[in-house]
Design a protein that fits this description.
Structural class: alpha+beta
Strand content: over 45%
CATH class: Mainly Beta
Distance between the termini: 32 Å
Strand order of the largest sheet: 1-5-4-3-2-6-7-8
CATH superfamily: Hypothetical Protein Pfu-838710-001
Radius of gyration: 16 Å
CATH topology: Hypothetical Protein Pfu-838710-001
Shape: globular
Number of strands: 8
């Protein structure tokens, strides 16, 4: 699976949400997520547990740059995150963990994440799914959502949250 991603430092979640909802975005609700990362030779691997009882193993690969970028990913849902963590922890190094509260909105093919990451602060992450549309169309939609939400001039973040935690980058 593929998507186009961007991440922004943004503490004005209410204003972003209001613009999204006014434009027809669906408010999916609030999620509390814990991501456990594992050391792998290529890309990233994390086990996500969500407060609604779902869990999924996520492998992904994307460039670290501040602009919109392609992310290739695969998901594996699991009903027993604890057992999967035990198995993974026997073979792979646990390299970090992060907790976040995420408000999820969906506009077209774009997932709008209003994230409050423990120890880091507030961010907006956009993921435009490349599925039933071309990558060029997904990139155009992604750009339009950035503008619609008023994020065009917001500070862009080039790396994963876990990398910011590793640098203790809270500014």
């Amino acid at each position: 699976m593929r998507n186009i991603e961007s991440k922004f430092r943004c503490s004005e979640h209410d204003a972003v949400a209001a613009r999204a909802i006014a434009a027809g975005a669906q408010d999916v609700g609030l999620l509390r997520q814990r991501d456990q990362f594992y050391g792998v030779s290529h890309g990233r691997l994390k086990l996500r547990t969500i407060n609604d009882g779902r869990s999924e193993l996520i492998a992904y690969d994307r460039e670290d740059n501040p602009g919109a970028r392609v992310s290739d990913y695969a998901l594996y849902p699991t009903s027993d995150a604890s057992a999967l963590d035990d198995v993974l922890g026997r073979a792979l190094e646990r390299t970090g963990r992060l907790d976040k509260t995420r408000r999820l909105l969906i506009h077209g093919n774009t997932r709008i994440h209003l994230d409050d990451v423990a120890g880091l602060g507030c961010f907006v992450e956009l993921e435009t799914v490349v599925d039933k549309q071309s990558e060029a169309d997904a990139e155009a939609e992604h750009h339009d959502v950035v503008v619609l939400l008023g994020l065009a001039d917001a500070e862009r973040v080039a790396v994963a949250y876990i990398d910011l935690i590793g640098r203790n980058d809270t500014t």
